[in-house]
Write a structure and sequence with these properties.
Blueprint: E1 7-10, H1 16-27, E2 31-36, H2 39-51, E3 55-60, H3 66-80, E4 85-88, H4 103-131, E5 135-140, H5 143-147, H6 153-172, E6 178-185, H7 196-206, H8 212-217, H9 223-234, E7 245-249, E8 252-256, H10 273-284
Parallel strand pairs: 1-2, 1-4, 2-3, 4-5, 5-6, 6-7
Antiparallel strand pairs: 7-8
InterPro entries: KR_dom, NAD(P)-bd_dom_sf, Peroxisomal_Beta-Oxidation, Sc_DH/Rdtase_CS, SDR_fam
Keywords: Oxidoreductase
Region (Disordered): 283-310
Length: 310
């Protein structure tokens, strides 16, 4: 896997998953533009990449505004002479149930995740089309956007929207040989540490305990477990893959389906409310779709002990 001569932007790459993505791309030879809202985190990310022998510069700015997107692309081109790869990872959480969610809670998450992805991809795609050598767009989704999750109206909407945009961009950018894919990661980060179900496993892993249930059954591991997929989708080897939602986490790799009709029924003249009242249950009742992310109860011998290793 050789990304030598390639130039990549990774938004939200000061810490966590974004930093793992940036370091992995650099490890395979790409030159990086890292991004974070925190100057110290951005500087540390640049230092981590350069200490490993890679090349990196930072743009410290929140994603969402068009000005940030322009700055990211301009920095890549002025520093390295080109752009090849964009990974849109930046994100925030403002979790609360629907009836307690404020306008600010909703707008903040939509602004960073959804608008931030849109503005960055628009700017990168415009440049890549003009450059005329193809390119790679990799947008970060979430299981929440695929299935929903309690208390995450804003986040679910943004992440579902990102996958919808990716499918559209795969169509629009195909003639320019620019691929667009969504990655659905499951990994221990500051965000997942707010969820007690996941935190028990990340804490156990930090203590050096094996967590096979988390890695296999849940597909939950470290940011580095997802980074290999990012590098692959950024490479020439993935030129034929576009418009896909691909999950990664722990020991597991998954390909998510696109929404499809699971049952179809016809009635001459269309369906009146009375027809639905009499026939909906018998026609669709056995095929209604589940919502939410299933969280299997760990077997007794798989659940980490809170006190172990302390």
């Amino acid at each position: 896997m050789d990304l030598s001569g390639k130039v990549a932007i990774v938004t939200g790459s000061g810490r966590g998953l974004g930093l793992a993505y940036a370091r992995e791309l650099a490890r395979h030879g790409a030159s990086l533009v890292v991004n974070d809202v925190d100057q110290e985190a951005a500087d540390e990310a640049v230092a981590a990449i350069t200490d490993d022998g890679g090349k990196a510069v930072a743009v410290v700015a929140p994603v969402g505004p068009t000005e940030t997107a322009k700055s990211l692309v301009t920095t890549a081109v002025e520093t390295y002479g080109r752009l090849d790869i964009l990974v849109t990872n930046a994100g925030v959480l403002r979790d609360t149930v629907l009836w307690k969610m404020s306008d600010e809670d909703f707008d903040t998450v939509i602004g960073v995740h959804l608008r931030g992805t849109f503005t960055c991809v628009r700017e990168a795609a415009t440049y890549l089309r003009g450059q005329g050598e193809g390119g790679r767009i990799i947008c970060i989704g979430s299981p929440t956007g695929q299935r929903g999750n309690f208390g995450q109206t804003n986040y679910a909407a943004a992440k579902a929207g990102i996958v919808g945009m990716v499918r559209t961009w795969a169509l629009e950018l195909a003639r320019a040989n620019i691929t667009a894919n969504a990655v659905i990661p499951v990994a221990a980060t500051a965000m997942t540490d707010t969820v007690p179900y996941f935190k028990q496993f990340s804490d156990a892993a930090e203590r050096g305990e094996p967590v096979p249930f988390a890695r296999r059954v849940l597909g939950f591991g470290t940011p580095q477990d997802v980074a290999g997929l990012i590098a692959y989708l950024a490479s020439d080897a993935a030129a034929g893959i576009s418009g896909q939602a691909i999950g990664a986490g722990g020991d597991r790799l998954t390909l998510w389906s696109h929404p499809e009709e699971v049952v179809t029924a016809f009635r001459d003249g269309g369906w009146a409310a009375s027809d639905l009242e009499s026939d909906f249950a018998s026609t669709f009742g056995q095929s209604l779709q589940s919502v939410g992310q299933p969280m299997p109860e760990p077997p007794a011998d798989a659940a980490p002990s809170p006190e172990a290793g302390s």
